[in-house]
Amino acid sequence: MSVTLKKAPVVTSVAAALLFLYLLSWPTAVDPASWDAPDNPGYTHPFGPNTYLTDIERIPTSNGNGPEDIAVDSSGRIYGGLENGKIIRHTADGTFLDIFADTGGRPLGLHFDAQQHLIVADGVKGLLSIAPDGEITTLTNSVDGAKIGVADDLDIASDGIIYFSDASDKFPLGTYKRDALEHRPNGSLLAYDPASQETLLLLDDLYFANGIAVSHDESFVLVNETWKYRVLRYWLSGDKQGTTEVFIDNLPAFPDGISRGSEGVFWLALVSPRSSLLDMLSTWPFVRKIVDRLPSFLQPSAQRYAAVAGLDSEGRVVYNLQDPEARSLATIASAEEVDGILYLGSLEEPAFGRIPVPSK
To answer: What is the pLDDT of residues 240-299, one digit of tens each?
Structure first.
């Protein structure tokens, strides 16, 4: 008589035990902080759902994904930076023209200076300047002797000073989820002076410093704190010079890009609704370590939702543009107003979009 040994249950038990130990104790660079996430107001007034963004004109990129920011030059040509490092150029009617440049990194924020050089906040390479012929110059990639981690967005004042953000000086761009899980202030607001070639630290201890916008009168600069669901105002002049205050707080989504529009409006891109899991685990840092050890597809990710807000100079919502089903464009990461048109970048899509600014 033969005896068959049933090994499968033993192997399964051992594998389960090893997986359990891995999730509990495998080393990780993430050092989560405990914090109390504010109650999510959701898409209620002044962010009630609507369908204005359903009519976005979708313009395929064809050469890669994720044109996170869009810039338009003085000839009306449209530029977008892709995940693969390429900066593409389209004609004013949306027809693909050429690959303008390849940074070899990840171009994020784009803005033209007075000389029509394209200034780029590159998440790998730092702050770059690209001449009209495509020649790339590195303006800065360090501050006070420390390497800039993730140059994310920028704006340029009339005196040429470039204000830009370093999203995280701890986690590289490709691991931004780890920065969210850690929830520590690894970001900063920086300024680069082309005349002196100096890079100055204006504000540190920010929770994923993201979008940047200089005010219309240039008395302050706005910087988004993505993991805090808010926008900060840093005063550049006046009685409050050098101080910081909250501009708008407890947003129902993650703020990404912000830009200066017309008539005193700032356009705020709300890239994805807040994650209920991240909010729930805000006071459970040990569990967030476990989440970090999970495969990426099991971790919180951006959700398909299209939302852009227009804010006045006091942070009040004066425009609320949405498409909850994101039928035309999802994960909108930036909104740039040019001649009455909003150009919309995307975190993940192989396309960017545009739509007229609505009348009030």
So the answer is: 999 999 999 999 999 999 999 999 999 999 999 999 999 999 999 999 999 999 998 898
Q: How many CB atoms lie within 10 A of CB 17?
A: 10
Q: Which residues contact 70 (CB under 8 A, 6 or more apart)?
A: 78, 79, 80, 110, 334, 336, 343, 344, 345, 352
Residue-by-residue DSSP string for 15-44:
HHHHHHHHHHH---S--PPP--PPPP--S-
User: For residue 35, which phi and psi values (nearest 5 degrees)?
Assistant: -150, 160
Model pTM score:
0.93
* Residue where the block lists tokens 């109390």: 36
Nearest 5°: the CA angle 322, 323, 329 is 110
Q: What does the alpha-carbon distance between residue 94 and residue 274 come to, in Å, rounded to a whole number? A: 32
- CA–CA separation, 100 and 347 (whole Å): 20
pLDDT digits (tens, 9 = 90+) for 31-75: 999 999 999 999 999 999 999 999 999 999 989 999 999 999 999
Q: Is 289 helix (H, G, I), strand (E, B) or coil?
A: helix
Q: If 0-12 CB within 10 Å is exposed, 13-18 middle and 19+ buried, where does residue 100 land?
A: buried
Task: Give the gyration radius of the chain's Cα atoms.
Answer: 22
Rounded Cα distance, 211 and 147, in Å:
20
How many residues can be counted in the chain?
Answer: 360
- Considering the segment(s) 33-354 as one domain, its CATH architecture is 6 Propeller (2.120)
- Parse the chain into domains and list their residue ranges: 33-354
* Residue 291 host element (H or E): helix 285-293
161 secondary structure, DSSP code: P
Q: Is 227:207 a contact under the CB 8 Å cutoff?
A: yes
Residue 281: name the closest of 296, 271, 292, 295 by CA.
292
DSSP 52: G
Is residue 109 within 8 A of residue 93, CB to CB? The reply is no
Q: Which positions ≥6 away from 201 have C-beta within 8 Å?
A: 143, 144, 188, 189, 190
Encode 137-152: b = buried (16+ Cβ within 10 Å), e = exposed: eebbeebeeeebbbbb
